[in-house]
Amino acid sequence: MAMSPEDVTRLRTGPLQASAMATLRLLRDFLGVTFKVKNDHDGGEIGGDTVLLSCLGSGYKNVARRAT
Fold it and tell me: Helix H segments across 1-68?
């Protein structure tokens, strides 16, 4: 999500652990990508408490990739 094109991406996941929050902070520090975290008590089709993550991609491009 963080390295995707400059477009909004969303992900629904279960409750975030401390290690997941630390990873989101590292992504913010290295790539400058901030995530919007929203609790979703409905849970959609999954049921139960879930979390919606959304971010605007950094637009990373692999310049080492060979062009065809």
Answer: 18-31
Tell me the two tokens of residue 52. 């919606």
The count of structural domains within the chain is: 1
- Burial string for 24-56 (b: 16+ CB within 10 Å, else e) reads beebeeeeebebeeeeeeeeeeeeeebbebebb
- Sequence-separated (6 or more) residues with CB below 8 Å from residue 62: none
What value does the CA radius of gyration of the chain take, rounded to a whole number of Å?
14
User: Domain range for residue 52?
Assistant: 8-56
pTM of the model: 0.72
Q: What is the pLDDT of residues 8-40, one digit of tens each?
A: 989 888 888 999 999 999 999 998 889 999 988
